[in-house]
Amino acid sequence: AIMSTPTTFRPVLERIAEEIERTPGSGRPADYIPALAARDPRRFGMAVAEPDGTVYGVGDWREPFSAQSITKVFTLALDLAREGDALWEHVGREPSGNPFNSLVQLEYENGIPRNPFINAGALVVTDRLHTRTGDAAGELLAFLREESGNPDLAHDAEVAASEAAHGDRNAALAHFMASYGNIDNPVPVLLDQYFRQCSVAASCADLALATGFLARHGIRADGSRLLSRSRAKQINAVMLTCGTYDAAGDFAHRVGLPGKSGVGGGIIAVVPGHCTLCVWSPGLDERGNSVAGVAALDRFTTLTGLSVF
Ligand code: GLN
């Protein structure tokens, strides 16, 4: 069902939803925790938010799903807003060309992760945000609630507990970086924050709205400034080059927008100055990106001609 808001994107979204429905579902839901494995890979939703907060969508666009690594964009923005460029002494901005949970590059680079969107880099960002706020996961949730206008957004305790029970890889990443002095908080404290961060449940509508500050060049929903224009540009650039891990080149080639995926099957994307998008479908490719999600964004930029290129 589509909301009755008349807009130029509406026929485009309808057409994409029809095309996705006709394409046999491919990809498999993330299976490293039971809560994600149970999702039906045929679910599909897509929302577009305009800079003034108008949002509309198709399919399951109001259905909450596990935001997972999409939250890494928001913690990055919140930490950059607080500590500024000092953050970049602790995490890089180069694509990794490796899977999101990879350990291999950390040793060569002295415990400095390649970018803030692979798990190692996101752990560093959350650690630093936690030091500055005393409650990184709470700070994130408050921000998402305000930007989406949805006060019911919450962490999913079952997902967070499941992450913790299967968290050996993230624990290894955090301990390894701590051995280089690149983690401030005790590792168990950091992991608890990170797993709660990943567990946020939100819909395409919520996440498209919450991403709006990146389309508004750093301006929040209430009109206040979170980031300078230049820092908002920098986050969009890192999303383009690093937001879909070892598929970032392919994503840029097909979609041509800054984007960030999560293993819950969601992807956010930004058309700077124009709109933000969020698409959700739980079937993932082998790199952890939603198959129908990438296909839908590919069709959106092709049909509308809107991309950063
Ligand atoms: N919770 C997941 C993890 O840390 C998030 C990864 C993702 O969404 N790519 O492994």
From TrEMBL:
InterPro entries documented for this protein: Beta-lactam/transpept-like, Glutaminase
Molecular functions per Gene Ontology: glutaminase activity
Reaction(s) catalysed by this chain's protein: L-glutamine + H2O = L-glutamate + NH4(+)
UniProt entry keywords in alphabetical sequence: Acetylation, Hydrolase
Pfam family, one: Glutaminase
Protein EC: 3.5.1.2
EC category: hydrolase
Coiled coil segments of this chain: none
Amino acids binding substrate: 69, 119, 163, 170, 194, 245, 263
Subunit comment: Homotetramer.
PANTHER family: GLUTAMINASE (PTHR12544)
Family of this protein: Belongs to the glutaminase family.
Identification of the protein by name: Glutaminase
Organism: Streptomyces ardesiacus
Name of the gene: glsA
